[in-house]
């Protein structure tokens, strides 16, 4: 009798053993599993419970330190890189993308085979065999290409057959996504993507894990595992960029008084969940100017006081969401009471669940407002007569004024007429006290058109203006090239010469009276201004136009 019990016991054990050792999805995929997952989270559309059995015979399971990982891929390890577009506003879709990174010199070709890149040298030199994995040959060796396609091994780890969409035989990787106690399996190339709708998910951070297998004859071999945290939130993810002309550093949250700051709100909504929503932006700039409500994501605001201000923004959007709890009156009839016609039932269901709720997003910042350089103008450009004739060189004086604070440094960049190729850059400290008025002297080598950029800066601000200037050609043999200094020498030679020279000098002066060709501030419409200049170059060279600027009388130091 005892013996019988013992035999029975053994039989029972033997019968139970395979059951006990049968792996479930949650045993394979993930350390992060909590027993309550399934109860806490609603079913994801198209996903399955990780209580399902895992076919370990077809999809072997290796622990993290298993030595077999080392040989799971020819020539090194495959890395899986998982990214998501989290954070996701509850109700929107969150999308995950896995990309496989192969060892150096390997890539997937158009047929889905893994090949060595041409002319790419790895440690052991160029490969004579172009293929790392010629899966085409494998699938033809096996019954892969069998018309029925129902072979035992063309299945996912849970036994479901591969979907036979176009080209599926060239898809050689099996991706198993796992989160919230559920899994999703997918056949793919070296990249796979999956989206989940977050409408019914719990808020907060979650973990997504992905395991990737590759074909290996009639079975599969794990090649990579990866996980990433994603976040589901009930606050609209909001980013705000702040821009201000003349602001020297756009990332230090310090801005200038009396110039508009342009605020641009970017809502992170990669799945376009808010496409149909009316979005309102409510601004409080913290300077007692009140509440600004706008439906435009860009807005500008000018602070007229210096100091520190706390600005805050609330973004509001009406989105599809759960309906309020049902009223005490009897709800809609249960499905069994509804007369025949599934369509009417579905329609009523949809319309009743089509509720809207307001979602909000918030942004706060503490910004510092300081005084800075607001404007810069070139008010006069004049030629400097040189004591010694210099055939091809010209010295020019630029009279520059500014508004706002007094700059500490002035820089000039001389470049080609397109303002792109720098030829010369000079910076000098500014040493003026009360009035912002400075003369900047710069040399030009050779005739032609030049673009001259002026920047004035102090600790917080940087103002820029740009002008085009034309330096006419000089013929060294002609008296037109003479300067004042030369005139004195000539005076000793004879009156006739002086007369000729004076006349010539007068003519020359008419040609050499420069005026600013373009005198703009800011960065807008530079290109437009430039082409306008090029079209009107002739007009600019009209003689005369001596500026009678009273400021010139007390000409400040030359920089
Ligand atoms: C380099 O290429 C050869 C083929 O020529 C291959 O056998 C070898 O595994 C490759 N080595 C590495 C490190 O990828
Ligand atoms: C890859 O396999 C296919 C099918 O067997 C074969 O036609 C092809 O020649 C193979 N390529 C190489 C380089 O072995
Ligand atoms: C193709 O499938 C049929 C039916 O399932 C089977 O009889 C046949 O042996 C298969 N061919 C190969 C080459 O495996
Ligand atoms: C959201 O994801 C689901 C799959 O879960 C997909 O069917 C649907 O088209 C996606 N919606 C958008 C707007 O991307
Ligand atoms: C969320 O749950 C509701 C109610 O159970 C259901 O009607 C809806 O289809 C679910 N949405 C998603 C995306 O699973
Ligand atoms: C701009 O401000 C940021 C933040 O204060 C600072 O890290 C960065 O170095 C500044 N950049 C420059 C060019 O001064
Ligand atoms: C949302 O708008 C974008 C661009 O305006 C468009 O590409 C996208 O298809 C729209 N998505 C939905 C779900 O309406
Ligand atoms: C926004 O700023 C105003 C005034 O500074 C303050 O009363 C309000 O509480 C702030 N709102 C938030 C959400 O911080
Ligand atoms: C938003 O404002 C900017 C400038 O303030 C303007 O160019 C743009 O057309 C506006 N957009 C809408 C949709 O009103
Ligand atoms: C700022 O807004 C005003 C009107 O609100 C507009 O006239 C001005 O052009 C805007 N400035 C910038 C830099 O967007
Ligand atoms: C505002 O600017 C004035 C003049 O530059 C200065 O005296 C004052 O200290 C500044 N105030 C603050 C709060 O920075
Ligand atoms: C000169 O300033 C203009 C903007 O006014 C800019 O586009 C250009 O790149 C600058 N040129 C150089 C050489 O810095």
TrEMBL record:
The keyword S-adenosyl-L-methionine does not apply. InterPro entries: Ig-like_fold, PKAT, PKAT_KLD, PKD/Chitinase_dom, PKD_dom, PKD_dom_sf, PMEL_NMB_N. It holds the Pfam family PKAT_KLD. One of its GO terms (cellular component) is melanosome membrane. Its main location: membrane. One of its GO terms (molecular function) is integrin binding. Residues 1-22 form the signal peptide. Residues 281-315 form the PKD domain. One of its GO terms (biological process) is cell adhesion. Keywords: Glycoprotein, Membrane, Signal, Transmembrane, Transmembrane helix. It is found in: Early endosome membrane; Melanosome membrane. It is a single-pass type I membrane protein. The chain crosses the membrane at residues 486-508. PANTHER family: MELANOCYTE PROTEIN PMEL 17-RELATED, TRANSMEMBRANE GLYCOPROTEIN NMB. Could be a melanogenic enzyme. Belongs to the PMEL/NMB family. This is Transmembrane glycoprotein NMB. It comes from Castor canadensis (American beaver). The gene is Gpnmb.
């Amino acid at each position: 009798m005892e013996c019988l019990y013992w035999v029975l016991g053994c039989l029972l054990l033997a019968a139970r053993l395979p059951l006990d050792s049968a792996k479930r999805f949650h045993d394979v995929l993930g350390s992060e599993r909590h027993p309550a997952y399934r109860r806490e989270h609603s079913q994801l559309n198209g996903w399955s419970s990780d209580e399902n059995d895992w076919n370990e015979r077809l999809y072997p399971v290796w622990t993290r330190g298993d030595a077999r990982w080392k040989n799971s891929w020819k020539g090194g390890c495959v890395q899986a890189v998982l990214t998501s577009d989290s954070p996701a506003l509850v109700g929107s879709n969150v999308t995950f993308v896995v990309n496989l990174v192969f060892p150096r010199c390997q890539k997937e070709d158009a047929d889905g085979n893994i090949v060595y890149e041409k002319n790419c040298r790895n440690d052991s030199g160029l490969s004579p065999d172009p293929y790392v994995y010629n899966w085409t040959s494998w699938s033809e060796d096996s019954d892969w290409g069998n018309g029925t396609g129902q072979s035992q091994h063309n299945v996912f780890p849970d036994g479901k057959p591969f979907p036979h969409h176009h080209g599926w035989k060239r898809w050689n990787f099996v991706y198993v996504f796992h989160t919230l106690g559920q899994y999703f399996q997918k056949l793919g190339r070296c990249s796979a993507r999956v989206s989940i709708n977050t409408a019914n998910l719990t808020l907060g951070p979650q973990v997504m894990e992905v395991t990737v297998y590759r074909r290996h004859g009639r079975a599969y071999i794990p090649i990579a595992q990866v996980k990433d945290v994603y976040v589901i939130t009930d606050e609209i993810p909001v980013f705000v960029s702040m821009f201000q002309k003349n602001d020297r550093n756009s990332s230090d949250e310090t801005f200038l008084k009396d110039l508009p700051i342009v605020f641009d709100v970017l809502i992170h909504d990669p799945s376009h969940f808010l496409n149909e929503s009316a979005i309102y932006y409510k601004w409080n700039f913290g300077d007692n100017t009140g509440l600004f409500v706008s439906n435009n994501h860009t807005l500008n605001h000018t602070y007229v006081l210096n100091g520190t201000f706390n600005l805050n923004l609330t973004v509001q959007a009406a989105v599809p969401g759960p309906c309020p709890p049902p009223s005490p009156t009897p709800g809609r009839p249960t499905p069994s009471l509804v007369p025949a016609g599934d369509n009417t039932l579905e329609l009523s269901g949809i319309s009743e669940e089509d509720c809207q709720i307001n979602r909000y997003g918030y942004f706060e910042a503490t910004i510092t407002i300081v005084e800075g350089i607001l404007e810069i103008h070139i008010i006069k450009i004049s030629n400097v007569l040189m004591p010694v004739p210099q055939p091809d060189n010209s010295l020019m004086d630029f009279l520059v004024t500014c508004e706002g604070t007094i700059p500490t440094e002035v820089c000039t960049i001389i470049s080609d007429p397109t303002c792109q190729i720098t030829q010369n850059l000079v910076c000098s400290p500014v040493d003026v006290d009360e009035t912002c008025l400075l003369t900047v002297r710069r040399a030009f080598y050779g005739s032609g058109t030049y673009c001259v950029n002026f920047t004035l800066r102090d600790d917080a601000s940087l103002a820029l203006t740009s002008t085009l200037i034309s330096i006419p050609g000089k013929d060294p043999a002609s008296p037109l090239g003479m300067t004042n200094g030369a005139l004195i020498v000539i005076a000793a030679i004879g009156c006739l010469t002086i007369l000729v020279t004076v006349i010539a000098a007068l003519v020359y002066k008419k040609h050499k009276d420069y005026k600013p060709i373009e005198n703009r501030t800011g960065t807008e419409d530079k290109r437009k201004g430039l082409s306008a200049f090029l079209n009107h170059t002739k007009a600019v060279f009209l003689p005369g136009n001596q500026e009678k600027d009273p400021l010139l009388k007390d000409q400040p130091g030359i920089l």
